[in-house]
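Input (structure):
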C-alpha cells in the first residue's frame, strides 16, 4: 500500500500517461468505445477500491494539488475559446448547439424531480457536476464539483454515469449517421450552409501556426498557475464582501472570465494550450477518481438508469426541435456530442459526416466549455429548490 504522497501522485500521473500512450500508439478496438480518459476514471477507481494507496496518508498530497491545478486547467482550456470564431458558425449551428444545451438542462431537472426519492435529495450536487460535463466537458464537471464542494464519494456516481451512459450515446450517434439522408428529408433541411462554413473554417485553421515550443509551454504553464493563485485569492476576498457564492464558486467564475478575455488577445494564439490543458485535465481526473471507492456506489444502477433517462429526454426534445426548425442530422448530432462528449468526440463525429466539417465540431465543443460551468451551476440551483 502506498503511503507516501509524492509516490501516490507519481503513480497516478504515470498511469494516465500509459493509458494515453496506448490509445495513441495501438489500434485496440477497446479505445473506440472507452477512450483513455474514461478508462482512467474507471481503472483508477478500481485501484482505489483494492487499496493501492492509503487515503488518509495521501490526503495532504491530494488536497494540496487538486484545486491548484484545476483552476490552471480551466484557464488554459478557455484560452482556446475565441468567441469571435465561435460566432462565425452562424445562427443555424449555434441554434442547434444551444438547443442541445437547453434540452440537456431540462432533462437533468426533469429526471431529478422524478428520481430524487431513489437517488436522494442531495443527489442534485453530483448531478449538477455531471450536467457540467454533459454541456461542456470534464473540465466543467470538475469546476462545478469544486464550486459546489461535491465530495469524492458522491462524485463517483457522476463519474460512473459519465463513463457508461456517455459511451453508449456516442455509439448511438455514430450508428445514426447512416440515417442522415432519410432524417434530413423528414425535417426538410439542407446542408449547403454547413458545408460552406466547414470549408471556410478549415481554410482559416490552415493559416494558424500550431507549432508547440518550449518557451510557449513554459509561459502558458507559468501564466496558468499565476491565474490559479490570484483567482483563489480573489475568490476568497470577494466571498467576504459578497457571500452570495462561496469562495470556490467565485474562483471558478474569475478564472472563466480571465480565460475568455485572454482568448481574444495574442495569448489566445500561443500554441500549446490544448496540449498542456489536457495534461492537467488527466492529472485532475486521476486525482478525483483516486478518492472514489466502487464499494460505496451501492445505488449505482439507479444512477445509470437516470443517465439514460436524461439522454432519452434530451434526444426526444432535440429531434422535435429539428423537425420544428428544419435542422439536419449533422447539426443536432454534432451539437449533442459537442455538449456531451466535448472536443474528444465531437470532431470525430463531424469528420465522419465529411472531413471539412471537423472544425465545426471543434468550435461547437469549445462553446460547451464557455457555457458549461455557468449553465450547470444554474441547473444545480433549480434542482436544489426541487430537493427542499
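Output (sequence):
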Amino acid at each position: 500500500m502506498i503511503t507516501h504522497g509524492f509516490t501516490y501522485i507519481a503513480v497516478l500521473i504515470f498511469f494516465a500517461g500509459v493509458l494515453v500512450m496506448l490509445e495513441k500508439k495501438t489500434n485496440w478496438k477497446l479505445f473506440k468505445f472507452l477512450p483513455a480518459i474514461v478508462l482512467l476514471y474507471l481503472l483508477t477507481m478500481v485501484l482505489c477500491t483494492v487499496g493501492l494507496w492509503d487515503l488518509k496518508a495521501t490526503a495532504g498530497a491530494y488536497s494540496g494539488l487538486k484545486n491548484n491545478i484545476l483552476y490552471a486547467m480551466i484557464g488554459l482550456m478557455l484560452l482556446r475559446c475565441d468567441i469571435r470564431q465561435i460566432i462565425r458558425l452562424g445562427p443555424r449551428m449555434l441554434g442547434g448547439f444551444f438547443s442541445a444545451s437547453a434540452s440537456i438542462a431540462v432533462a437533468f431537472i426533469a429526471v431529478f424531480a422524478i428520481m430524487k426519492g431513489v437517488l436522494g435529495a442531495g443527489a442534485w450536487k453530483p448531478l449538477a457536476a455531471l450536467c457540467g460535463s454533459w454541456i461542456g466537458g470534464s473540465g466543467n464537471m470538475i469546476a462545478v464539483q469544486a464550486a459546489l464542494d461535491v465530495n469524492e464519494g458522491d462524485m463517483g456516481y457522476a463519474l460512473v454515469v459519465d463513463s457508461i451512459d456517455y459511451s453508449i450515446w456516442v455509439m448511438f450517434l455514430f450508428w445514426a449517421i447512416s440515417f442522415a439522408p432519410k432524417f434530413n428529408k423528414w425535417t426538410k433541411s439542407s446542408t449547403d450552409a454547413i458545408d460552406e462554413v466547414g470549408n471556410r473554417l478549415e481554410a482559416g485553421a490552415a493559416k494558424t501556426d500550431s507549432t508547440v515550443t518550449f518557451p510557449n509551454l513554459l509561459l502558458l504553464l507559468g501564466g496558468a498557475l499565476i491565474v490559479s493563485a490570484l483567482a483563489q485569492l480573489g475568490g476568497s476576498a470577494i466571498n467576504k464582501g459578497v457571500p452570495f457564492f462561496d469562495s470556490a464558486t467565485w474562483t471558478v467564475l474569475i478564472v472563466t472570465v480571465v480565460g475568455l478575455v485572454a482568448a481574444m488577445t495574442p495569448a489566445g494564439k500561443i500554441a500549446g494550450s490544448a496540449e498542456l490543458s489536457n495534461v492537467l485535465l488527466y492529472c485532475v481526473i486521476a486525482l478525483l477518481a483516486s478518492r472514489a471507492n466502487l464499494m460505496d456506489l451501492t445505488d449505482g444502477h439507479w444512477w445509470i438508469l437516470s443517465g439514460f433517462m436524461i439522454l432519452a429526454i434530451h434526444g426526444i426534445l432535440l429531434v422535435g426541435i429539428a423537425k420544428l426548425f428544419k435542422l439536419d442530422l449533422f447539426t443536432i448530432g454534432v451539437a449533442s456530442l459537442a455538449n456531451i462528449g466535448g472536443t474528444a468526440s465531437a470532431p470525430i463525429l463531424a469528420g465522419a459526416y465529411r472531413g471539412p466539417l471537423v472544425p465545426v465540431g471543434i468550435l461547437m465543443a469549445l462553446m460547451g466549455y464557455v457555457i458549461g460551468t455557468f449553465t450547470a451551476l444554474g441547473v444545480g440551483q433549480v434542482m436544489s429548490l426541487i430537493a427542499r
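Notes: The chain has 18 helices and no strands. The chain has a mean pLDDT of 84.
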